[in-house]
C-alpha cells in the first residue's frame, strides 16, 4: 500500500511484547482545526494514553504483557515528523496468561456506515482468570467496552479526537484518508478470537 495522507492525524503504534513475542495495537487521533501537530502535542497525547491505559485497561490484562514504545507518525505528509516515546505499560493480572493467539475484538463505532466507518483493536494479554472455556464473561466484555470508550475523553484532554482512519474505498487507495470520530465501542460477542499471525 502506498502512502495515504491524513491532515494533522497521528497514527499511534503501541509496540510491546507478550510471552516473548512482539505485539502491536494501532490507534488514530486527529487534531483537526487546531493547527499543525507539534512535539508538545505528541507529548500531551502520550501522557493521555499512558494515563488511560494505566487507569482503565492495565488491571484487566496479564502481567506477561508490556508495551515498551509509543511510536507516533504524523500522516499529514510523507515527510512529516515521527515521535517515539519509551514507556513501560504492564498488565496487572497475575494469573497464568492465555496463549498469544487468544484475543478479544473491540469494535470502534462512528456515525458512518460500512467497513470504512469501523475500526477495531484485538485485546492482547488475556489471562486465564478472565476466560472460561472459550468465552469471557459479560461483565468483562462490558468493562473492556467502557474502558475503551474512556479513550474518547482521554484524547480530548490532549486536544485530539480519537478517530477511525480509512485508507481504502471500493478496493482502491483513497487520495486522502477518511477521518471519522469514534463515538462508542462494542465487544461484538463473548467468544474469544484467534489471531493466526500470533501462532508461532
Write up this protein:
- With 200 residues, this protein is of the alpha+beta class.
- The chain has one domain (9-198).
- It has helices spanning 39-57, 138-157, and strands at 9-18, 21-30, 65-74, 82-90, 102-109, 118-123, 131-132, 135-136, 161-169, 172-181, 184-186, 193-194.
- Strands 4-3-1-2-9-10 form a 6-stranded antiparallel beta sheet.
- Strand 5 and strand 6 (118-123) form a beta hairpin.
- The longest helix is centred in the C-terminal third of the chain and has 20 residues, at 138-157.
- The model has no long low-confidence stretch (mean pLDDT 93).
The figure for the number of domains is: 1
Q: Low-confidence runs (pLDDT<50, min 5 residues)?
A: none
What is Rg? 17 Å
Instruction: Identify the strand order in the major beta sheet.
Output: 4-3-1-2-9-10
Order of helices and strands: EEHEEEEEEHEEEE
Could you write a compact summary of the structure shown?
With 200 residues, the protein is α+β, with helices and mostly antiparallel strands.
Write the layout of secondary structure elements.
Blueprint: E1 9-18, E2 21-30, H1 39-57, E3 65-74, E4 82-90, E5 102-109, E6 118-123, E7 131-132, E8 135-136, H2 138-157, E9 161-169, E10 172-181, E11 184-186, E12 193-194
Antiparallel strand pairs: 1-2, 1-3, 2-9, 3-4, 5-6, 5-11, 5-12, 7-8, 9-10
Helix pairs in contact: 1-2
